[in-house]
């Protein structure tokens, strides 16, 4: 019995990032940073129960977890060369990326994963295809999934090059409002005492959000950014000083998803503000010992100047 997504108290930015990436997987994945016990894994597992299949006719979505100690062959799959050479067949043995197709690929403690494995995951997430090559023998298969990584920054950081490859990033904290914190305890007690009744009490809110996601996915293709919107996105990226063009493209995909989530046919300033916060914070260059908390202020200042300019 899974804890309902709509029963999670607070953590609005985390929940929104997950939903936007689910609406538009081209966003490129979500990295959730935060201390233990902040509903990171709960939200990821609850998301799968909430989502429609990624493609029409696909089976119900599941969460495929990637172990920290997974080898490259375990992740991408392997080819039985002896069988391939002797029998003339590819003899492909599927890996985690095969199982992840049409599902959520969840990497807990992604900062502890080997950098080479993270690179592979992010490459496949971007291309939607996994290719395995061994001694001149190759095999490819579709691997389109919703990528979610979680980590506790106290246990180590991701290299900036890898951070940049995640579309969105959010930081989560424990609730500091006593009333909210009390509500977390009450709901957890209710779920533990009678999970069936607790889940049933959120059935309507889960159904409503499921329908909203379906409608957003249907609306998404019709939301075409205007040149004015694209110019604002480019100006925001230049203003905050991020490298490369990936931030611009991610902001565009995120703004489209946010507009679709709110039933809009055009991207608005509010969509751009949300997209900038989610897509740029982890890509900002920082001075030594500079606190991450200043990032939102820097982004908001630039976004306001661009939108009012």
UniProtKB/TrEMBL annotation:
- Designated gene of the protein: bchI
Q: Which organism is it from?
A: Veillonella atypica ACS-049-V-Sch6
Decide whether keyword Acyltransferase is in the record. no
* SUPFAM superfamilies hit by this protein: P-loop containing nucleoside triphosphate hydrolases
Q: What is its EC number?
A: 6.6.1.1
InterPro entries in the record, alphabetically?
AAA+_ATPase (IPR003593), ATPase_dyneun-rel_AAA (IPR011704), ChlI/MoxR_AAA_lid (IPR041628), Mg-chelatase_DI-like (IPR052989), P-loop_NTPase (IPR027417)
Q: What is this protein called?
A: ATPase family associated with various cellular activities (AAA)
Top-level enzyme category: ligase
Please name the GO terms that the record assigns under molecular function. Answer: ATP binding; ATP hydrolysis activity; magnesium chelatase activity
> What residue intervals traverse the membrane?
none
Start and end residues of each AAA+ ATPase domain: 26-176
Q: Which SMART domains match?
A: AAA
Q: Which UniProt keywords apply?
A: Ligase
């Amino acid at each position: 019995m899974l804890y309902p997504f709509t029963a999670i108290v607070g953590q609005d930015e985390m929940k929104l990032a997950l939903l936007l990436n689910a609406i538009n997987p081209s966003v490129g994945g979500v990295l959730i940073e935060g201390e233990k016990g902040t509903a990171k894994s709960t939200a990821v597992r609850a998301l799968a129960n909430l989502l429609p299949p990624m493609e029409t006719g696909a089976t119900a979505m599941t969460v495929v977890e990637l172990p920290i100690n997974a080898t490259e062959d375990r992740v991408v799959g392997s080819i039985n060369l002896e069988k391939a050479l002797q029998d003339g067949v590819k003899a492909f043995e599927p890996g985690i990326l095969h199982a992840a197709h049409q599902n959520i690929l969840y990497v807990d403690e992604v900062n502890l994963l080997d950098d080479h494995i993270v690179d592979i995951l992010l490459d496949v997430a971007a291309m939607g295809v996994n290719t395995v090559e061994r001694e001149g023998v190759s095999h490819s298969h579709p691997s389109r999934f919703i990528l979610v990584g979680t980590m506790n920054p106290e246990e180590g950081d991701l290299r900036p090059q890898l951070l940049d490859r995640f579309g969105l990033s959010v930081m989560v904290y424990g609730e500091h409002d006593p009333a909210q914190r009390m509500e977390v305890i009450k709901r957890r007690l209710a779920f533990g005492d009678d999970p069936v009744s607790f889940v049933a009490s959120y059935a309507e809110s889960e159904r409503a959000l499921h329908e909203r996601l379906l409608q957003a996915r249907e609306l998404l293709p019709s939301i075409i950014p205007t040149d004015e919107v694209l110019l604002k996105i480019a100006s925001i990226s230049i203003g905050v000083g991020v490298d490369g063009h990936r931030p611009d493209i991610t902001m565009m995909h995120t703004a489209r998803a946010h507009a679709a989530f709110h039933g809009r046919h055009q991207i608005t300033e509010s969509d751009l503000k949300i997209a900038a916060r989610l897509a740029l914070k982890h890509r900002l260059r920082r001075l030594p010992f500079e606190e991450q908390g200043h990032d939102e202020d820097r982004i908001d200042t630039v976004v306001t100047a661009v939108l009012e300019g």
